Amino acid sequence: MLRLSQTCLIAQIILAPLLLGGLRPWALAILAILTGIGVVAICLRAGPVQISKHVLYLWLGIGGLIGWSVLQSLAVWPLQAYPFNAPRIALVPNGWLNMAFYLIWLGGVLTLTALVARMQSHLTVIVARTLVVACALQVVLATSAELLGWQTTFWFAKQVHLGDWTGSFANRNAFGTLMAFGIVACLFLYHQTAASSRGKRLDQAGGWLALAMAFAASLTQSHSRLGFAMAIVGCALFVVLTPGEITNRLKRLLLTALGCIAIIGVVAVASPELWIRFIDLSRTDLIQRDDLWMTALHAISERPITGWGADGIAVVIAHFATPDLNANANWFSSHNLWLDSSLVFGVPTTLILLAAIVIAFVAAIANGKHRDTRALLIALLGMGLLGSVGDWVMVMPALILPVVMMAMTRLEATFATRRARPAPLGRAAQSPVPDRAG
């Protein structure tokens, strides 16, 4: 049963990218079925199923978000101001259903991860290897489409991002982000190899570095600025935080900075298209993220406490669009997940959500053991935060799965270590002091 549960959990890392990122309702339904099978299988094992307190807190948080979304959709509020004349906060009354389905699936995945991690001590390595397999499969698909001249996502013909490598995604940032995660996972797996010298490690595990270079080349072909920035940040964090031969932290920081500069220089020469896209950020005649973010901030200022409800971002952006924003486009996201959260739930709920995420990750990295695993988690967290600020794609199951799985695995290991610590001896259990007067 444990093997079946683990398979249902790990298979989603490979399936989600193949299913257009996994965010479509039909794709999310497939992932949810796998999650349910895994939970049922592990519950059918002999012996009691123990749920950790942090998993219960997780479900309390999910219940709170869904409950607030339902409350936003009820017609129990004063009549809202123009142009949304209705006795409810939510612009789309039934919009909370899709969000609730996504949150319940995510909670199920995290619960299944915690249950499997209790019985599988090497789950982090398994997740990292599966992530590399998923990235390799996407590279094969993207390379095949390029060689055959297909402008396709393998589901439908591309309408945008023509000439960019996207694999089975419809978005180049999603493909680039997955490649960035794959690069860091390869570095982690390379560092996991025990060897007495650098030469022997290269001989035994050099294939991981070769795969990392293949993923880096594919990332540049996607022309994703966000993916490239995430890869630089993630690799730098992992190299700096992972113990190595160079013990001087300042020297390691300097060498890492020089390495990042060298990589940027090589990419500028090898991939001029990507470099031109970075240069385009300085142009004022293009529709930039700042116009969209200013629109979102204006909308948030209108309802900072209550938000606008689930699935209503497109309507809000269209109404509050700044003069420089193309109001004819369907802006279903502000391309910043924290602004999206504030638009949907309101600022107070977003701050509570951010605090909960920070507390969870701090608890996950609190354990001092396995510094390379901690470095991996911090790198993924840094990449995820950067991705959440620059685009909406981090909510895709294909991208959020490896991050939350590794975080939950680490969190479970941290609490397991605390539970295993012997309790301090009480006064009655301590050795008596010998009576010197006898």
Give a short overview.
The protein contains 16 helices and no strands. The chain is mainly α and 438 residues long.
Written description of the protein model:
There is one protein chain. This protein is mainly alpha-helical and 438 residues long. It has a domain at 122-282 and 346-416. It is 67% helix and 0% strand. The protein is built from 16 helices and no strands. Helix 4 (96-119) crosses helix 16 (397-420) and helix 5 (123-148) crosses helix 6. The chain is globular. The model is unreliable at 427-438 (pLDDT under 50).
How big is the Rg?
Answer: 24 Å
Distance N to C terminus: 64 Å
> Strand fraction band?
under 5%
- Could you say which overall geometry the principal axes of the C-alpha atoms support? globular
- The average pLDDT is 87
SSE ordering: HHHHHHHHHHHHHHHH
**SS-based class:** mainly alpha
Helix content: 55-70%
* Strands, count: 0
Helical segment count: 16
Note poorly predicted spans.
Answer: 427-438
**Largest β sheet strand count, sense and barrel closure:** none
